[in-house]
Amino acid sequence: MNREAVGRRFDAASMLRARERSWAVLHEIRARMRPGIGEDEAQAMAAGVFAQRGVERLWHPPIVRIGSNTTRTYRQRSDPGVRLSEDDIYFIDLGLVFDGHEGDVGETFATGESRPHLACAQAARTLFDEVARAWRNEGLSGRALYEFATVQAQAMGWRFNHAIKGHRLGDYPHSVHKGGDLGSLEGTPSPGLWVLEIQIAHPTEPFGAFYEDLLVG
């Protein structure tokens, strides 16, 4: 099985444009997040942004996790009724399609001035950057990237979520190619095809952070 197979209409430049447009949508949603909003309301608000930004379709539903729900993976349901406070943490995870190519981006943000929340959000970004740098500079396999991420997260003082292993993207729908998890890839992932997902949690408190992006050269 070719885990990096793509469709006949796949175009690397279109992948990069989908990534760029996905990030623009995510930050527009962030700009509209306000204390008091619930996760369902945030997802409904996101749908309005999608329409304005010309999103062709979704390849996975938008995910907004707030507060203690930031420790949940995409397969786990949120505790209901959680609303964003003035001193809180949340993340946004989007899977969008533009011009037949998939984007997948996610980032964590803190409201207020809570140092633990701010540190957690920043740690997810920093860990992503360190793992992506190891991929670019050392040519690590997908499996080795997640082994590296585990060690780095522990050294930084955070719990690493081992249920998150990254995945393929491509021309829609990438799922027909059965690329599998990045964390089980024995070879070096090619640029522009694989999403590196990072999810961490505070070692003792009920909150965490998430960051994901396409691995690009």
From TrEMBL:
<dbReference type="Pfam" id="PF00557">
    <property type="entry name" value="Peptidase_M24"/>
</dbReference>
<dbReference type="InterPro" id="IPR000994">
    <property type="entry name" value="Pept_M24"/>
</dbReference>
<dbReference type="InterPro" id="IPR036005">
    <property type="entry name" value="Creatinase/aminopeptidase-like"/>
</dbReference>
<feature type="domain" description="Peptidase M24">
    <location>
        <begin position="14"/>
        <end position="215"/>
    </location>
</feature>
<protein>
    <submittedName>
        <fullName>M24 family metallopeptidase</fullName>
    </submittedName>
</protein>
<dbReference type="InterPro" id="IPR050659">
    <property type="entry name" value="Peptidase_M24B"/>
</dbReference>
